[in-house]
Design goal:
The chain has six helices and two strands, in the order ββαααααα. By secondary structure, the protein is mainly alpha-helical. The chain has a two-stranded antiparallel ribbon with strand order 1-2. α1 packs antiparallel against α2, α1 (14-74) packs antiparallel against α5 (129-163) and α2 (79-93) runs antiparallel to α3.
């Protein structure tokens, strides 16, 4: 039971056609797997960049605890600012890699960096070593956080540009890979 087909004047048997069709299907599958793999590589880079941001936020939480302790011992009358810092510390601990997480980081930023501005109100704070150490730590952490956010943003921009290609967009929808938002829009 052989099926004989003429292809360019040659006789090709049925099993050769089946092997040819199977080869084309395998090639298409490999191309799809390649593009899906690239999507996941981009996603992994973004997730790793977010981990760097989260690590800096954990360090920031520890610094905020030092800030709160300093305020309790040195500036007892700054109760409202202590409450803001406690709230900022709690918010930082629940930040996720999504649009809401971006808003939370921006919301806590001014409260935490407001600690540095206390020296404008209390001139003698500059003389207190504990204050200057905490201030230096928060500024250093802020620089590291900005660097981590920039790295994250670059990864998100390249991922979103790649994802906007029509075929890739369809694959990302099939694989349920989301579009990400940048921190610094």
């Amino acid at each position: 039971m052989y099926c004989i087909i003429f292809l360019r004047g040659d006789i090709v048997e049925g099993y050769t056609i089946i092997v040819l069709i199977f080869g084309v299907i395998c090639l298409l599958m490999m191309v799809m797997i390649y593009f899906i793999n690239r999507l996941f590589q981009y996603k992994t880079r973004i997730d790793n960049s977010f981990i760097a941001i989260k690590d800096n936020l954990v360090k920031r939480t520890l610094i905020v605890e030092d800030m709160i302790n300093f305020l309790e011992t040195s500036l007892e009358h700054e109760k409202s600012y202590q409450k803001k810092l406690i709230k900022a510390k709690d918010l930082v601990s629940i930040i996720k890699n999504n649009e809401e997480g971006i808003k939370l980081i921006k919301k806590t930023e001014s409260d935490i960096l407001g600690f540095v501005k206390l020296e404008n109100t209390y001139k003698n704070l500059v003389k207190i070593k504990e204050y200057t150490n905490i201030k230096d730590e928060i500024l250093k952490n802020n620089e590291q956080l900005i660097y981590a956010m920039d790295s994250y943003d670059k990864g998100v921009i390249s991922y979103n540009d790649y994802r906007r290609k029509k075929f890739i967009y369809i694959l990302s929808k099939l694989c349920k890979i989301p579009e990400y938002s940048c921190y610094n829009k």
